Amino acid sequence: MQTACDVLQLLSAVTIGLLAGALLTEGCLLVPYWRSLPADKFHALYRELHPHLYRYFTPITVAPLLLSLAAVIVSMLLTDAGRWPLVIAFGLCLCAAATHSLYFKKANTQFAAAALAPDALAAELKRWAIWHWLRTGLAVVAFGAALVSLTL
Fold it and tell me: Are 86 and 75 in contact (CB under 8 A)?
């Protein structure tokens, strides 16, 4: 059973790291580019990319949640030394995922529908970037906690 715990901890850390890396990439490359575009070009591009981004980020967000939850359950049952950092990692992943319902779902739908005037779009993209960096920070700290769980 300890081997299963170790494997789940490793898979949890790997998938959280992939999520954090994907969010960092989006924040450093896509978001500044989107903010530099005129409204009409942004809306056209986002309308095209929206389904692809959704299909990409859904599994890369859900996998760390499921794997870290499984790792928490098994590590608690075994009273594994890494269980508390795993609890923190899972909680942070849950908070990062919750930002979708709290903010991103509505904003992304507005972007895809080209529902915002140019001045409102600039303000919303600024707000989107702030929420994105919050979500990214949560994922990065979750990754750190998952790595700590591997060292205990």
Answer: yes
Q: Domain of 138?
A: 2-151
Around Cβ 69, how many Cβ atoms within 10 Å? 17
**Phi, psi (rounded to 5 degrees) for 151:** -90, -10
Domain count, the chain: 1
Rounded CA-CA distance 39/108 in Å is: 14
Q: Is the entire prediction scored with pTM above 0.85?
A: yes
In three-state form (DSSP H/G/I as H, E/B as E, the rest C), the secondary structure along 25-42 is HHHHHHHHHHHHCCHHHH
pLDDT tens digits along 23-70: 999 999 999 999 999 999 999 999 999 999 999 999 999 999 999 999
